[in-house]
Structure formats: C-alpha cells, structure tokens
Amino acid sequence: MPTRTALVTGASAGIGASFARHLASQGYDLLLVARRAERLEALAAQLRAEYDVRCAVFAADLSDPAAPAAITDHAAAEGIDIDILVNNAGLSGKTAFAETPWDTLAAEIQLMVTAVTELSHRVVPGMKQRGWGRIVNLSSLAAFSPPGASLLYTGVKSYVLNISQSLDMELKPHGIHVTALCPGFTHSEFHDVMGTRDEANNLPGLLWQQPDDVVREGWQAVMNGKPVCVPGTVNKVVAAAMRPIPTRVGYYLGGRLNPFKDA
Ligand SMILES: NC(=O)c1ccc[n+]([C@@H]2O[C@H](COP(=O)([O-])OP(=O)(O)OC[C@H]3O[C@@H](n4cnc5c(N)ncnc54)[C@H](OP(=O)(O)O)[C@@H]3O)[C@@H](O)[C@H]2O)c1
C-alpha cells in the first residue's frame, strides 16, 4: 500500500506542529501549510531527517479566498494525493464586534469557516475515489461553552463542531471519517497572537493541556472513527456540564464567565 499523505494547516506552531510531528512519527507523508514558510521548512527538514518521510511545504495565507484552490492545485501538480486533512489553522480576535473593521472579521471567517469547508470539499472527491480518508477539524471547548461576549470565535467553532458531524454522517459509507477535535486551553502561541497572554497565565494550571496530549488523544479518536473528541478529563467534565444548560442560563454565564471580556 502506498504511504498516505496528510495536509496539515497551521503547522508552523502549536497544535498543528504537534500534529505534523505525530503523523510523521506514524509514517505518514506530509504537506505542511501556514504563512511562515521558514518555520515550515525548518520543521519539514527535522521530520524528514528523524522519520524518513516525505514532507512538502506550501506557504499560504488561508484568509485569502484563493488559498484553498492554490493549495490543492499545488498538491495535484506535485502528484500528492491528500488522504488526511487536518484543518487546524486558526486564531481568535479579542476586540469588540462593532469596533473591529469588517476586513478583520471577514478574514477570520474566511480562515476558520470558508477555508475549512472549501479544503474539505476539495479533498473529499479523491478520498471517495480511493475509498479512504480522514478529516480532523479543530473546533474548541468554546463550542460547548457559553457564548463569549463580543467574539466571533464561539460561533465559528460551533459551526466547525456541527459541520464535522454532518460530514461524518454523509461520508462514512465511503470510508471517510470526519472528527471535530475540541481542545480546551492548550499551551501554544494562540494567546500571544490574541493578545491575552497575561489573562491566560492567570487561569488555573489544571485547565491547561500540552499540544502533544491534545494531538495524541485526538488522533486516537480519528482512528477510532469518533465524530467528536474533547481531549482531557477536565475538558470532558466542562463540556458535559455545559451541554444541557438552558439557552438563557448559557447566555447569562457567557456574560459573567468570559475571562477575556475586558481584554
Ligand atoms: N490554544 C488553545 O487554547 C486552543 C483551544 C481550542 C482550540 N484551539 C484551536 O486550535 C487551532 C490551533 O491553534 P494553536 O493553539 O496551535 O495556535 P497557534 O500556536 O497560534 O498556531 C496557529 C497556527 O495557525 C496558523 N495560521 C493562523 N492564521 C493563518 C492564516 N491566515 N493562514 C495560514 N495559517 C494561519 C499559524 O501559522 P502562521 O502564523 O505561520 O500563518 C499557526 O501555525 C486553532 O484552530 C485554534 O482555534 C486552540
């Protein structure tokens, strides 16, 4: 059987870099995508040397509507079949909706909603033809938690949680499984990019996970065909506690508990 190839977006840092390392350690070839090409090249060189896998790099800004087509066209031109798609690239804004320029909000939606959906749509026909595929979409514990005031993030990650389950239902008869991976607070560059490092540092240590732990549990869920994975015991308890609460209570809690509402 030919070696399978995984496309990992947002592989230049955090959970995406950890996914790239984990998949290389399992013998998968890789196509790594993010904006910072030099980081991708350095990681690719390391993974080729350590695990003897093929590791291609393609620098792209996924907030550019042309990026998903550019990535899959590049893969096709290089003769790379995408068997595994890890839709991981993401970030969160922290400024109030009404104060944020539309271009910034549109870029977030393009990156975490449209690109996630379009990349899936572009790779599924090949997966169907080959009768095997795995798609991992990075959602978040935020998709289960009360809505965070002013942020698009909860809505975006709720979309990812829902669409992943719908796609899994549609595609599993074709040998394709789709998993929404929903981490809680994870050590990465996420809060530096968001500008909430100080607030994040004040949160209790038991709420935090390492990216490698998120990825190990997430990949196990993918291989077991689970449509949703909330990694870590504490996160599972939080998700379970949040699910049955009435909408009005969730709305109230979202306003009270959002640790970044004043950031
Ligand atoms: N950390 C957490 O607490 C947490 C919790 C739940 C869910 N998540 C989700 O997990 C995923 C990974 O986050 P992380 O924690 O690993 O954050 P991170 O360390 O900041 O990594 C984010 C990755 O996304 C890439 N990226 C961001 N904007 C991009 C763009 N416009 N085009 C292409 N790539 C882009 C970044 O690469 P470049 O900057 O090089 O482009 C980087 O590789 C995200 O979807 C996030 O929402 C994170």
TrEMBL record:
Top EC class of this enzyme: oxidoreductase
Domain Ketoreductase: 4-169
Signal peptide positions (record): none
Top-level division of the source organism's lineage: Bacteria
EC number, as in UniProt: 1.-.-.-
Protein keywords: Oxidoreductase
Keyword NAD: no
GO molecular function, one term: oxidoreductase activity
Entry-linked InterPro entries: KR_dom (IPR057326), NAD(P)-bd_dom_sf (IPR036291), SDR_fam (IPR002347)
Pfam families: adh_short
SMART domains (UniProt xref): PKS_KR
Family membership noted in the UniProt record: Belongs to the short-chain dehydrogenases/reductases (SDR) family.
Protein's UniProt name: SDR family oxidoreductase
Species: Nocardia aurea
